[in-house]
Amino acid sequence: MTDQTCPVPTTPPLLAHAESPVPARCPLFLTQDWFDILEQHGMPSGTTRNDALIEHALRLPLTQSRGSFHALASYYSADYGMQDGVVVSMTQALQLADWFRSQGARHIELRPMRDDAPLLRMLMDALRSHGYLSDSFHVSTNWYLPCSGMSWAGYLASRPSRLANTLRRCRKRLEGEAGFRLRIASHSDETEQMLRDYAVVYAQSWKESEPYPDFIPQLCRMCARHGWLRLGVLYLHGEPAAAQIWFVKDGTASIYKLAYDSRFAKLGVGTVLTAALTEHVLEVDQVSEIDFLTGDDAYKAEWMSHSRTLVGLLAFNTRSPSGLLQAALHFGRRWLRNFKSGMAKTR
């Protein structure tokens, strides 16, 4: 635990039976642990899991409702793809399409995926070759910061000067408050108390209640066991005033949950805590990327330098009456939106 009481200012070859070993680096949101905890604690009751399995036990985690297949993903998901981050070949994408057809899939929806993910384009093409109409659609924007070798001082120098000025002003103000203290937990033996403090802050924040209350605690416990958790809490007047959940895995720091007690909003408690965790992952963890995950909130551009698009994949089985109807509705709506947009530009 860090206790801070003073400032620290190409697709693989297309082989018929190409093996796809588990990569040395795998995003948290593609690990087996993530999918298992999401299934057990973060999905509606009655959800039916039916993963696509192809050669060498390669797994695409899915849920099924009649003839519709969806990604095993939810409000909590920031990425989606093959379990363990396996990169498939085109041959294996065709096998996935075979699997969907063998299951009688009429409608397929997979999200969120990065728009440059190899699986996205290969699976769209593979499904088209099997009689599906496929399309992609916008889901969200992902802000991130490449930061290999970057120090905290270097980070501040790279950001707009107003951010450093705001941090300096907020930090000075907080140091004049009684009981100002920062803690960052990264080990399992520190998790439970810090989770209780996080829950206190969340309950006093502007945010709505979690739809699945067990999910965040279970996720944090799992990440703490692996050494991936970075749970930060800022205290004022003897009580938690702001809390954030970050994860650090394979050189990437993911900013997952942010909350602050609304009573302390004007003191900049959230800003100061974000700065403390950013400094920690740069100086202590020495990450190569900081990822603000989903959402195009304006404030993220202050902290991050790059953005990318998250999309979803849609596919409709044109050999099925219901699949054909859903395709007609989807592409019809898109045509209508484009038509209205074009008409507006000509006015």
Tell me, briefly, the overall form. Answer: globular
DSSP E strands, number: 13
Query: SSE order in H/E notation?
Result: EHEEEEHEHEHHEHHEEEHEHEH
Structural class: alpha+beta
Strand content: 25-35%
Structural domains: how many: 2
Largest β-sheet summary: 11 strands, mixed
Count of helical stretches: 10
Task: List the quaternary state of the chains.
Answer: single chain
Identify the strand order in the major beta sheet.
1-8-9-10-11-12-7-13-6-5-4
First-to-last CA distance: 60 Å
Average pLDDT for all residues: 91
| Poorly predicted regions | 1-20
Rg (CA only): 22 Å
Task: State the helicity in percent bands.
Answer: 25-40%
Question: How would you describe this structure to a colleague?
Answer:
The protein is α+β, with helices and mostly antiparallel strands. It is built from 10 helices and 13 strands. It folds into 2 domains: 28-140 and 309-346, no CATH class; 148-287, Gcn5-related N-acetyltransferase (GNAT) (Aminopeptidase), CATH 3.40.630. The chain has helices at residues 32-41, 90-102, 118-129, 152-158, 161-175, 191-203, 215-226, 269-283, 300-303, 321-346, and strands at residues 2-4, 52-54, 58-60, 62-65, 68-71, 107-114, 132-146, 181-185, 229-236, 239-249, 252-260, 289-294, 306-317. The strands form 2 sheets. Strands 1-8-9-10-11-12-7-13-6-5-4 form an 11-stranded mixed β-sheet, sandwiched between helices. A two-stranded antiparallel ribbon has the order 2-3. Helix 2 crosses helix 3 (118-129) and helix 5 packs across helix 8 (269-283). The longest helix has 26 residues, at 321-346.
